[in-house]
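seq:
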Amino acid sequence: MGNRAKVLDRWYGRNKGNHIWRAEKTPRAAFTGEAQYKFEDLYISPLTHKRSADADGNIIYVPIEPQRNMTPTGIHVMDNYLQHLARGEADVADFCKQYNARTSDIDGMVFLLTGMSNQAFRTKWQIHTADLLLRYTKMGVTEVARRSGMGSRTNMYFIYERELDISPTERRNALRQRGDIGRYTVK
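struct:
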């Protein structure tokens, strides 16, 4: 009974008498170095071809120039991570398995190369991809969410509301201009 009383007086290993119910969160230090890469230098677009017209006026699709650089950093692990994101795969733990690495290793690499947290980098990647797909394709929001790495329509809605204070459908209407549908093809 004596041991039971001790257990009841504790909450997750902390003495109730100390009134410490959760660990104090210390703000993470800002990146003080100069980021080696900007987001735009690393982003791999899902758009592969642009609509054009040949000499006879027929509509053709030509590869987007310059050719997409699938290895923008030259760092094998980082370039594979960027390709992972470009495929719409957002699970960092799944990516880490192939290298027997921890998610904190990838977080640190992204932070040191971009000056952004991995979470902020991934979210920016997903929103940028979703914006392109919403603007230039007829894909439904569910398919855009899947292709951008957000997973589901619900996740996409909450990410857009949190980051942009707008729904995906409202964002599509705000981005899309006349002639945008079909201007590009998607891989």
